[in-house]
Amino acid sequence: MELPKFTAFGSRNYRLYFYGQSVSLIGTWMQRTAVSWVVYTLTHSSFMLGLSLFCLQFPSFLLSTVGGVISDRYNRFKVLLITQVASLVQSLLLAALVLMGHYKVWEILSISVVLGTINAFDVPARQSMVYEMVDNKEHLPNALALNSTMVNLARLVGPAISGIVLQKFQAGACFLLNAVSFLAVIISLLRMKLPAYLPAVREKNPIEELREGWQYMARTPAISRPILMLATMSLFVIPFSTLLPIYAKVIFHGNAATFGWINSFIGLGAIGGSLYLTSQNAATEMARKKILRMTTFIFGVGLLLFAYTPWFPLAMVFAVISGFGMMAQTTMTNTMLQTTVTPAMRGRVISYFAMAYFGMMPVGSLLIGAVSQYAGTPNTVFGSGVIALIVLGIFWRFLTTPDEKKSPFISSNTTTSQWKQTARL
Question: How many helices (H) and strands (E) does the chain have?
Fold first, then answer.
């Protein structure tokens, strides 16, 4: 495999974003870990742990399309700045609540809903802004792969730091540190040198633009099929991680540390998948499709091998393989969308990506949890691997043939009427 490339760092704005977001994401994972700890300490209920995740992610499913419209209608820089400030305030409120010592679980869950609502507007604006931060658009796939590396490194580092802080200073300190971490993003945004925002002439109201976004996706197979593929994977395959505590305790006869090791090895594989993408030339449509079908295959096979392996060291090898395929196929789906979408529709398409990924996982977690009660945990994980391969088969023709109608990297000056004319060609 080639060495990782960091061509996207040639863009000053992207470098600022990467450094600021790296700090913020570590804080975010510290807060997520601390919230789970607080909820479990208060309730001693695995159901409430699942509910806390549901409260965080489901608002994104409900509101991300609205967030996409906002991202396309208004200055994305200002939208992103507002969501970061709102996230900072949310963390401060959570810290104050916990530090005062008089809090109930419904208050913690309510603040999680608030954060999930903020994220519904943050994700479309933030992901869309990456395109604008990269000077050379051929470096966009590299930037998205680096984003994935950043997320997974934070996923490893954040919980580890959170564990130390929880032991020494309690949960309130984690929430305070997360609030401080948002300053890194805010400062990096304020230091960027972006082109002057030119508001487009809006002939339609937000409801019409929302409908227009759905029509654009339906008429563009290069957009709709990767999103549908990701939604299916997020519903039936990616939530396999819900069952990892059972593997740790029942199958491997371990404890919380065992659970941590499993997550770490999956995270290690995810980082490997992200670095692999940075080393690949994904500048062409067929190159991206080749990578997507290969990584989906690796993900499915990894789960098949992991499902029935009772020997912990070997199972961790398969966990790395599964993490590699899972993250690489998700990141490549994002890359395919970002390099295909008309800029005028970028925010809305990213919101559909967020719906497919973040929205389906909570529902999938509930579904996989229910199925495992009857089918057993190894059988359920094995079934998820089989479904991954079935999904690959269903979309095989799309992944092996060029798109007939496709207009990648259309100028940001393209109007809604222009993309409609393009769709008719």
Answer: 17, 0
Domains of the chain: 1-193 (1.20.1250.20), 205-425 (1.20.1250.20)
- Which tens digit of pLDDT belongs to each residue from 366-408? 788 788 888 888 999 999 999 999 999 999 999 998 876 544 4
Say if CB 191 and CB 55 are below 8 A apart.
no
Averaged pLDDT for residues 88-106: 89
DSSP 117-172: HHHHHHHHHHHHHHHHH-SSGGGHHHHHHHHHHHHHHHHHHHHHHHHHHHHHH-HH
Give the model confidence (pLDDT) of 187-231 as tens digits.
Answer: 999 998 877 776 666 666 667 777 888 888 888 888 999 999 999
Phi, psi of 7 (to 5 degrees): -65, -30
C-alpha to C-alpha distance for 263 and 269, rounded to whole angstroms? 10
pLDDT attached to residue 30: 84
Contacts of 360 (CB under 8 A, 6+ apart): 61, 231, 234, 235
Alpha-carbon gap, residue 92 to 181, rounded angstroms: 11
**All residues at 6 or more sequence positions from 84 whose CB lies less than 8 Å from its CB, including other chains:** 24, 122, 182, 185, 186, 189
Chain segment 117-163, per-residue pLDDT in tens: 998 888 888 877 887 888 887 788 888 878 877 877 787 777 778 77
Q: Within its chain, how far is the Cα of 253 from the centroid?
A: 31
- Asked if 72 and 204 touch (Cβ cutoff 8 Å), the reply is no
Query: CB under 8 Å to 29, separation ≥6 — which residues?
Result: 154, 155, 157, 158, 159, 162
- Which residues, in sequence order, are CB contacts of 53 under 8 Å at separation 6+? 362, 365
When the pLDDT of each residue in the chain is averaged and rounded to a whole number, the result is: 83
Here the tokens at position 277 are 């993408």
| Dihedral, CA of residue 289, residue 290, residue 296 and residue 302, to nearest 10 | -170
Q: Residues with Cβ < 8 Å from 192, sequence gap 6 or more?
A: 12, 13, 16, 17, 77, 133
pLDDT digits (tens, 9 = 90+) for 233-275: 999 999 888 788 788 888 898 876 677 688 778 888 888 888 8
